[in-house]
Amino acid sequence: MKTAVTGSTGLLGSHIVELLLAQGHEVRALARRTSDISHLKTTGAEIIIGDIEDYDSLRPLVEGVELVFHAAAKVMPGWGSWQQFESCIVKGTENMLNASAEAKVARFLHVSSGDVYGGGATSETRATETAPLNAEFHPYSYYCYAKMLADKLVQEYHREGNLQVTIIRCSGIFGPRDRLLTDRFYGLVNAPIVIWPGKSKPRAALTYVTDVAECAILAATSDRSAGQIYNVARAEEQWFREFAAALARALGKSERQWNIPMSLLYSVAFIMEKWARLWRFKEPPFLTRADLQEFEKSMYIDGSKARSELGWEPKVSIEEGTRLYVQWRRLQGKR
Question: 195 - beta bridge partners?
Fold first, then answer.
């Protein structure tokens, strides 16, 4: 089957590319001129240089393609202007929908996030796919709000009969090539003294990246999934503290954590942000106020629909996933 993948140099997109190729599919992978495509070159995928914000560059990507996996997004919560998030996530998704419809693509798989539920994903009850979309428009949550708008666009295209679409809403994704969550927790537990923000114990809905990639492909190829939405999340409860402890064990380090008051960490994050903006860093600093805000709230979504309708079952535990991540870092020569 001929497939196309956006976000192919990112965490999930790169693993979707690898899994599609392993299953015998043809893959076209979209990459920006400024992206590091060194790993993508090793996969054997056909690389198309373009940008979801540039409509004309998308035609070579989708021409003659049967399945599109749209995983590209600006994933830097709390870092960047609304115009940047809107242009990439909302207008970029609209460009992909239009290009795919024009090329008569059979199925469009949109990668979304559990963050679109807003406070509905942080309550004591797991948010299902029917929960209202309540992401707030705030500098810390521009990513979540933009994803919510993109979700609505995708659903509208399906309702109007322009394109057969499926949406997956992911929980936290961890694993190799993750430059955000996993890298930051790694830096936290690999420090001489492991500090822990406050005394809270937020839930963490974490799924290993290859399991998420498998769910994406199952959702895109299932006969019954057109027009459907699937949360991608493990069944068991998880906690950020447990994730950090598993990383520490994979590193062979102490699991002891020292609590630091959140007020102090917010002050440190504020200074780091000011410094990064002063020097016009494109990437966020190691710690931002948006990170701390995300850390203080849980992510709690229900992935039972994907398990019952698609037959999806995550295979990689938190313990095994953190071990594989540390192994990957060492093979890359990263400390």
Answer: 258
- The mean per-residue pLDDT over the stretch 275-281 comes to 86
CA 77 to chain CA centroid, nearest Å: 11
| Residue 106 vs residues 36, 89, 243, 324: alpha-carbon distances, Å | 30, 22, 39, 35
Rounded Cα gap, residues 179 and 157, in angstroms: 32
Instruction: Give the gyration radius of the chain's Cα atoms.
Output: 19
Cβ pair 257, 244 in contact under 8 A? yes
Task: Examine the pLDDT at 105 and tell me if it is beyond 80.
Answer: yes
Q: Which CATH superfamily is domain 2-175+204-236+300-316 in?
A: NAD(P)-binding Rossmann-like Domain (3.40.50.720)
Give residue 95's pLDDT. 98
Both tokens of residue 46?
């056909």
What's the predicted TM-score (pTM) here?
A: 0.94
Q: What is the mean pLDDT of residues 7-12?
A: 97
The rounded distance, in Å, linking the Cα atoms of 181 and 206 is: 10
Tokens matching residue 130: 């029917």
